[in-house]
Structures are given as structure tokens and as C-alpha cells.
Amino acid sequence: MPPLSEAVFQVLLALADRARHGYGIMQEVEQRTDGRVRLGPGTVYGAIKRLRTQGLLDPSLTVGE
Hints:
65 residues; mainly alpha; globular
């Protein structure tokens, strides 16, 4: 498996403690990184789709997808 991109890594970290909506993931990442990382909707939802396809993300962790 190739290394995780920073965006994918940040999405996984944002979902580590609870399920979130895509917007909640974007907010959590921005807050946790003190604004250093800002993910757009396409990046977040693309990362979620890839993670699900690879079996690395339980669908119950993303709300409202």
C-alpha cells in the first residue's frame, strides 16, 4: 500500500475520536493544525471515497454521506 497523503492522514485523524460530516472534518483539520492545513470539499470527499474503497474506513464514521 502506498503512503498516505497528508489529506488522507488528516481525514483519518479527524475521524479518530468520533463520526463527523464532511464539513466537520474540514473544521477539525483546520483547528487541529492551527490553520496550516485547509481541506476543501472535493479533497475530503475524495479521500473518504478512496478510504472506503480500500476498506480502510468504516462507513459509519462519516455522517450524512
